[in-house]
């Protein structure tokens, strides 16, 4: 489809409420070039429609596409979709008042690699994007020039007088009705049916895509919820198992302690009964012996615990010493690794030099320098000093000449603290560059000479 001169290009932006902004195509191009920004669309992906409108405010073509905006409201600089080409090469769409339009969307895209950047318009009742486009264009808020359809005047020389018997309309009862050719009627019916089928297919594709997106979103949400529930169940099961083990262990320890207390109590009762049967002296002796035995057992237990603590202290000291040794070994290995990496780089350079490869570098004033392998370390340490030596000047003079060569202006400082920046003739060779003269204008050069003479 070739764009006629009277066809106007416009761009309309959609949000959840419908068309939120419209502009002419030159304004849209200015926005893409970064001349204009849209802060209200910052950090969003907007749905946009490119339309071709004739002089009677009727849509002839439409392309529905996505456009991303940055955080500052500027359009994505990488966006590049040939809207006019898509509008010319795409298929038919619904009739918006001037016959079937040219429609390019996700489900009807003439170029497959642009399909992912397009979107399907909705055809639901009350939320029909085609109706929104048609009504918004009819409002003519863009101020388009409208061409009214006027009847064509017939020249006077072409007017002819008809016979008198044809001046009056024939009697409808006597005149048989004019029948429309069956081929034309059938063709019109086929065109209407094909257009209706295409609209329904487009609506079905849009609904299918929306349904698949909802299903995938719900599946993903369900999967995430199931994963969270599984993790929570596993965590609770692990905590319950740990608690059960702890309870069982404490229960066994409690039973063992109760059994030991019971045995000790029985033993003590038996001994007390035996002591009661003996004399009071024997009872006192037995009690003293029992106390002494108890203290001896307590002292033995304390000594045993002290010994265990000292063993743990020795193990801890040994572990600390082992950690320090391992840390030293790690540092030594890192140093060896650095040395080996440096040696491997030097060996690589030697192998490349042996194979005939030369190392070259470009410096202003010195040109392309061929660097021998023996000078590679000195060049890497200070490339500027190496180039200055090749030019036969000092490093300071070469550095000031490079600044003068790149920007030949006066570097003298004015009384206001700013640089003079007076353009100078460029000195092409570093050897002919004189500090304080070649990089100063005539006024500051004479002042510098006066200060030197005084």
TrEMBL record:
Coiled coil (UniProt feature): 190-285
Superkingdom of source: Bacteria
Name of the protein in question: Chromosome partitioning protein ParA
The keyword Coiled coil belongs to this UniProt entry's keyword annotation: yes
Region (Disordered): 169-189
Species in which this protein is naturally found: Stutzerimonas zhaodongensis
Keyword tags: Coiled coil
